[in-house]
Write a structure and sequence with these properties.
Number of strands: 15
Distance between the termini: 34 Å
Helix content: 25-40%
Number of domains: 2
Order of helices and strands: EEEEHEEHEHHHEHEHEEHEHEEHEH
CATH topology of the largest domain: Rossmann fold
Amino acid sequence: MSAVIRTTGLVKRYGRLRAVDGIDLDVRAGDVYGFLGANGSGKTTTVRMLLGLVLPTAGEVELLGERMPRAGRRVLPRVGALVEGPAHHGHLSGRANLSLIDAAGPGGSGRTRRARIEEVLDQVGLGGIDRRPVRAYSLGMRQRLGLAAALLRRPELLVLDEPTNGLDPQGITEIRELLLELNRRGTTVFLSSHLLAEVEQLCTRVGVLDRGRLVLQDELVRLTAPTGATVVSTPEAGRVRAVLDGRVLGVDGDRVVVRGADPAEVNARLVAAGVPVSALALQRPTLEEVVLAAAGTSADRVEAPR
C-alpha cells in the first residue's frame, strides 16, 4: 500500500529543546491514522512540518509521494488541513469566509463554487447558518467551519489537529461519522489528538508521540489483540485459584485473569467445580494501557475514555 505521509529522521529543535526527535511516520493510503500524544509532546509541531508551515531542523517529509516543502504548490491543493484551530475573518460570515478560500483555488463557475460551499456546510452540520459574522460563532461552530474549509477541494488527504476541540458529545459523534464516511470514499485521514476515546473509535492505525519521540506505530487491531488470557468475573475469586492451580495470572476484586484463550473451557472447569461465574471475556489491552506502556508516566496527560 502506497505511503501518503512518510517522514524520515524528522527533527525540530528550538534552541536546546528537541520538540520533535527523529520520527519516522508511515501513513498509508486508506488509513485513518491516530497521532496520539500528551499536550506538549510535539504533535502540532510535527503537523506543521508536514504541511510546510515550519521547516524541519533535519530529516525529510513526503506527502502524497512528493518531497515537502519543495513540492508544496503541487501537493497542498490535494490536502485539506485544520491546524491549531481554524483561522477566519471574524467580521465576515461563514459563507463569505469559505468563498474567499474557494476563490484562491482552481477555477469554476460561481454557481459551482456556491453549490460546493453549501455542500461542505451541510457535511459539517452548518447548513442552516445565517449571515452572522464568524466572531459571533461558538468555538464549536468555528471548529466546524474550519473543517468545512478543509473539505472544500475534496482532498485526497485530510490532516487534522484536534478537530473535535470545542464540540459537545453530539458534535464529536457527527464529526466522527463524517470522517469515517470520507474515508470510505477514499480520503486518507491523519488525526492528531490527545483524546484516546476519539482515536479508539475512529482510527485504524496509531502512532504515539512521547516527548518528541515516536514510541509506537502499528495497527490498532494488533495493539489491542487478545493476550491469550481469559478474564473471569466471579464473587468467589479465591476458589478460582484452587480450581485452576497455576493458571491464575492476577486477581482484582471479583475479576480474575486466567491463562488460556478459550473462555468456554475455563467456564466448564469452574462450573464443574461449583464456582459461580457471572461473566467471561478474552483479555484485550485497552488503548489506554497500550499508550501507558509505550509512553510511560507522561501518558497521564493523554485523556482516557470516560
